[in-house]
Amino acid sequence: MLPKRFTRRGLVFAGLSFVFAGSAFNAAAVTDPIGSTNVTVADPTVPRPPGTPCVVQLFSGLTFTDFNTRPYTYTPPTGCGTHWAKVVLEADFSVTAGRQFDRTATLWLGGVNLYFGTTQEPSAAVAPSWHVERDLTDYSALLRQAGNGQAVIGNIVNGTYTGVIGGSARLLFYPASPSAPAAKAPDAIYPLGSDAVGNTVALGNSDSQLVKALSLPRNVERAYLDVFVQSQNADEFWYTCVPDQYAAQVQECGGGNFREAEVSIDGQPAGVAPVYPWIYTGGIDPYLWRPTPGVQTLNFMPYRVDLSPFAGVLSDGAPHQVAVNVAGANNYFSATASLLVYLDPHVKQVSGQIERNTLVDQPPTPTISDTLVTDASGNITGDINTNLSRHFIIQGYANTSHGRVHNKVEQTVGFADTQGFTINATTYRQVSDQLTSVSSSSQSSVGAFVISKYSEQLSYPLHVDFTQQVAADGSFALATVVHQNYAKHGEHQLFGITLYSANVNDTVDSGDTLNFDASGHLTSHTGQHSTQAFAFGDSLGGCYRRNVGTLSGVVTSYDSGNGCPNNQNSVLWFSHPDGSPDGGNAVLGW
After folding, report:
1. C-alpha distances out from residue 492 to 444, 451, 461, 498, Å
2. Nearest CA among 237, 255, 238 for reference residue 246
């Protein structure tokens, strides 16, 4: 039987990382990247309405060589009004050739997160650059006033780690027009963090909280919480960990592999936010992510929790504690969240209360089982299984100018994980299969009539096959195959009629083998390859398809439009008139 394996945490250049919102919906506008070693992804850019945007530069030409923040000031644009059809953040980053960890990157304004992602790792020969975008239309209330912001990319530059990270960022404001009316955005934004300019909070264990006491207006009609929780440090590879009782036996990290963000109001469970298993560009084997990173690695998407059942409670004039913790956190998760509220302009006071909350009696406690067998020679085979499924309903009413509105959130959240092991004298193999799934609906009704309803289904499958094979001379090879997917279907209904529906599917498959001599020095790598496929379609005729393939760190295929009418990527710009709870990225299905 092998001694404790050459751990990935020591071997794999642990760090943090990226997902670029690259290539535009118009495939003809994209330069053919075949033959390139630079960052190349299939992700679309944020769709834009017609018209020329006003541009506000947040910063330009900054470099990040230490752990100090980079402050900037923000002034709203002139000449585009104060209510916009669309607001888009664009940022461009790069890192010089050399050696550098992947780094967490965040942008802030007035305590509110504008962007959360990670950076691409360079190589001795490649100085990668990448572009990210985020739809910030739902944050328009924040952007109507001047404020202070900062860019945070902690980085070390010395004789060993030489990569200098650089970046620029700007906001694009698309003015409202008859063909592109002003979006119905939330009326106010409240950050949960304690930093007035903005930064994340470390959640070291399940009891650690990102929490803020908020005194809100007395006429809150609907409320949503945008949540980011990013694994860090010992939790970076949480999806491969096992419950503590098995850790020594299978030579893995303990703490289990169930992670989920829990949202509470005044200590009462108010919703959950599943954790996406982002893998950063230094994760497991850095060659897996060159030049195409994992799903959302460079540009995380927030999970939006519907807190509208609590609208009447939040409007009572008293301060209320809104909090986020990560069940299973084990040193640690980096967290931020922003509360978005819609106000009833026709009343000074909204009243109401919670009518039903079945999440209260369902703590996030997974069931654990195993089929592990150890033979007479000490060889281990078998699986460790972790499962949890919860169905809950949270319902409350709010007395508004429209009458008594009942807001109901019904959700089923599932988590299923199997860690399969084969451990003997020459082999250490771990196959991780994980699936997080969400089926939810949010509806508002007056009396017996359902006025509006938003339904969505989410799926986060992850497959990691890691095999360490030792040769007779003591040299060894580490072969890794990874499959990641993000799938979402969303549908909006008004009085029972479907107004809009969309599907998005983002898949990355990658593989590589690292070869080491008997002293543990990396001698070569073989079989480096990856593919990414991004597909989008909606009920308005929007269609987007793009596929990227790479071999040995070079882009070898780049297909666009396959499966779309006339083989063209196109999408109709669309803004929800009802302020729907899909995170302000309806066209992408986020």
Report:
1. 12, 11, 25, 6
2. 255
Dihedral over alpha carbons 63, 67, 73, 78 (to 10 degrees):
50
Please identify which residue in the block is written with the tokens 């398809």. 545
Residue ranges of the alpha helices (H) in 323-381? none
CB 328 within 8 Å of CB 295: no
Q: 460 preceded by cis ω (within 30°)?
A: no
Residue in 301, 277, 308, 279 with CA at minimum distance from that of residue 292? 279
The DSSP 8-state label assigned to residue 181 in this structure reads P
Query: What are the angstrom distances between the C-alpha of 464 and each of 12, 240, 430, 480?
Result: 15, 8, 8, 7
DSSP, res 567? G
Cα 402–Cα 404–Cα 409 angle in degrees, nearest 5: 105
CA distance 287 to 527: 10
Helices (H) and strands (E) in the chain, counts: 4, 29
Please calculate the CA angle 283-155-482 and round it to the nearest 5 degrees. Answer: 10
User: Which pTM value belongs to this model?
Assistant: 0.93
* Residue corresponding to tokens 């300019």: 197
How crowded is residue 361: how many other Cβ atoms within 10 Å of its Cβ? 8
pLDDT per residue over 66-100, tens digit each? 999 999 999 999 999 999 999 999 999 999 999 99
